[in-house]
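ingest -> validate -> predict -> emit
validate: passed (alphabet ok, no gaps, 277 aa)
predict: started
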Amino acid sequence: MADKQGSHSAGAEKLNAFAEKVAKMVTEKVGDRLADHAARGNGMLAPHDVQGVLDEISIKDDAALTQLSESTWTGLQHTFEEAFYAQMRKFPLERLIVARFVHLLPERGAPPIPDKTLSRRVIPAFTQALHQMVGPDLFDEYENRAREMVENISAREGDSMDWDRLHERPVAKILVNDLLIYISRYFLDCAKRRDWMISFFDRTMPPAKSEGEKAWHFGDMEFHKLMSALYRELAETMYDVEGRQRLEERYDAASLSQLEQMLAGLAQDQKRVLAML
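emit:
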């Protein structure tokens, strides 16, 4: 709760500071322009002069106000993202899954590079999509398992526990693989699910504000970058003799057959997408 309250407080402070700066800048601009009008009118101001000055003030047409708006938005995004990662300490399952594609994300505060990286805005959209595919009951069950894992490791290792490498723990890999194998059923018709995810991400990603974010979009190749990263480790394990044996010890034949079909369909769909570029 303290993390959440802290993020709310930081966000509120930034919004208050933004409002105060805008009010001050607008007041100064209105005052200066009214003074200019008055000087041209021998010290007299008509009502239409005042209204005209007010109509001229626009954030999108004022470079200083635009810069202030964009820089404040960037600061708020950083605040919200920090809050998200703080919450991920309470909800470690999301952190473990995002670790599968975190290498595709730019540094915090850096813009995404079209055709090369994903935007960090995909994180909340992907988490919501995963919730829909897994369902609340199963997701909560695995969230609790992830918390228990963290509690057990923390009890043994204390402050020396490395959060950044938590996803490398064998138990963590099993938790993520369980969910990825479960949702593979939804990707047997890869083209249909690709269209769904692109539409879903377009609706649920936070709006782009910076020019770098506006130049980026989640499309066909971004879908395949995300999916390839999510399933790369499982695919490598599937086609390794010892790895396949470990998977067969945990999962039934139907689940692994389904996973193989999904991976094959994913590869075929990616080839079709590349051929259309």
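Residues 1-89 form one domain.
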